[in-house]
Amino acid sequence: MFPEYRDLISRLKTEDAHFSKLFERHNELDHQIANMETGVAPANSFTIESLKKEKLLLKDKLYAVLRKAHEAA
């Protein structure tokens, strides 16, 4: 995700607690969704769709923080 910001992501994960929390939650959702889609964890399509929407919202928030930090640099 966002390979053009790889270095900035690494820095923000250690320096910005809010960013780190958002990033961690995004990764948790990614794993949860993958497990549900492959049948490892039980879920219905509504649950999966809800988690995907939450993950997308987090991605948008992460991108906004990245853009702001990049512009400030």
UniProtKB/TrEMBL annotation:
What the entry lists under InterPro entries is as follows: DUF465 (IPR007420), DUF465_sf (IPR038444)
Which Gene3D superfamilies does the record cross-reference, listed alphabetically?
Answer: 6.10.280.50
Q: Which Pfam families match?
A: DUF465
**What protein am I looking at?**
YdcH family protein
